[in-house]
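Changelog-linked ticket: iron/sulfur cluster example.
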Amino acid sequence: MKFLMIYPNTTGASRVPLGIVYLLTILRKQGHSVKLFDMTFYGVNVNNNYVDVRSKNLNFKGINLTPYGVIYKKSSFEEVKRDLIEDIEQFEPDLIGVTISEETSPTGFLLANVIKKKYPKTKIVFGGVFCIANPEGVISHPAVDIVCIAEGEVALPKLLQKLENGENITDIQGLWIKKNDKTIVKNIVAPLISLDELPFLDLSFIDDRHFYATIAGHVYRMTYFGTQRGCPRRCAYCSNQIFLNVYKKNVKGYIGRKMSIPRVIDNLVHLKKNYDMNFFQIIDDDFMLRSLNDIKQFSRLYKEKVSLPFWIQAEANNVTEEKVSLLKDAGLIAVAMGIETGNEYVRKKVFNRNTTKEESIHAFRIMHKYGIRTSGNVIIGVPHEGRKEIFDTINLVRKCQPKSLGVNVYVPYFGTKLREYCIEKGYMSKGYIHDGRTPPLKLVLNMPQISAEEIDGFVRTFPLYADLPKKYWQTIKQCEVLTEESEKIFDSLEKIYWELAEAKGMNYDVPGFDYDAFFLKRQKELEDRESKKTVSSPS
Ligand code: B12
Ligand code: SF4
């Protein structure tokens, strides 16, 4: 069978979309012909690209990736549609898949409409986190025939196999199917697979611009890799609860699984060897959920067999000095940790988070002691949070001292408890869907205690409040409101901000890594590719 997967990524966020790569890898291994239509580098949303917006708001210092070949085309949506239709004409898929998060769902539906109009008989299957959060909403869309309500590694191959054999598809676990009479068959989720059964990733589907990114002030060639699925916590704003709920509700099971450490290492060796990676980002929600024994084994084998710098995400309340020292020894250079809020009421009652302020401060201290480069994330623009509560968060960040800071404005994602609360309180409409084509970092909620303009002001100034000495606070306050005068003040504060950042060590060099050689090698690759294109192009 021929299967086309569409990735309607409008956010400009690069990196490897692991979920669909697993699906494509499995289908290819089973003998199907597969193709990926990836919107990422069309740059249709180039003015609202969240990477640029964050860099402008001092969340990190943007490095120009153009010399590494990372160029966005700045295309119109019409061009995307034209190319998609061209691909369909040439490839003639038997089935089309679309992967969606909430932010990419409006574009996913638009493309599905385009396809259905031209090829009404071609079946379209949707999957991804928004389908797990809102299966009713997705299946009710006229262009959608099938929805994958959970992980897809069992359900999608089964669907293709049954279509190939001309068999009934309405009983496939993990799928909701719209029948010809428009009634919907709602199957329960498919059994969970062990992560050790997953094949090695086939990254040949992936545009290699996804591999170049900046970590701690340097560019590397990297990929994400997940060693665990699921997080046992239920933070009220996070989509993790929908993953927990779907398995609890459907099969009374728990989604949390870990890949065995030897298998993790084999995977990473495969990626290093076959795709020439020189960095890894381990995308587990909390790598520190691993036991001390796991981390001992990982660190020993990683150092011996992989031996590349790497990055992890961690939750502060699982961070221990022993784990950090082992990981440092293995090559850990950077970590991202959620700080989220410094206000106790918001932490417990609004966010349902267990990690305390003290645990956050302690975890950052340990990371810094071992020379690990930290980034911290906070969320502002939430119920029960006014200026005072935002300053509680600023004060906690001042104590944690992350080397870089991600300031996020709360987005009420479908299927989360906090969204339900916001609807109940009348802060937002029931049907709201967060469209990734709208400008990022804008307040969605309409709340009595803080306005959208005030949140804009904090998005602009939060890193300044968090990093500069308190004597600057009065001056920073003037920058909360955007005027010609305040822009000038902002520019001068920005200079001080980056000087201080430089002084406290924003950038981490990996000892022994030859950055110049890496850059030249990439240049050569790009030149070779260009000359091949020129040679093979018709005269
Ligand atoms: C890595 C990651 C990214 C990467 C890659 C994204 C991607 N599409 O894979 C990047 C950096 C690009 C990214 C960007 C963003 N992300 Co992100 N990201 C993650 C993270 C940490 C892991 C994703 C992952 O690899 N999961 C493991 C794989 C196996 O699962 P999966 O992707 O869901 O895929 C499985 C199923 O969904 C299904 N499936 C998926 N697609 C399809 C398609 C078909 C046809 C079928 C049948 C099945 C199917 O099968 C897959 C295999 O089992 C998750 C958190 C998490 N734990 O999931 C957040 C998460 C997905 N991201 C989130 C957000 C908010 C964003 C951004 C909006 C951030 C921003 N402000 O810009 C952007 C959106 C960009 C986008 N393209 O959607 C939210 C999504 C919220 C929501 N309800 O939509 C999550 C859930 C974080 C959270 N805890 O709230 N992200
Ligand atoms: S710890 Fe992180 S991944 Fe887990 S529920 Fe909370 S925010 Fe989500």
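Closing comment: Example verified and attached. The radius of gyration is 24 Å. The CA atoms of residues 62 and 158 lie 43 Å apart.
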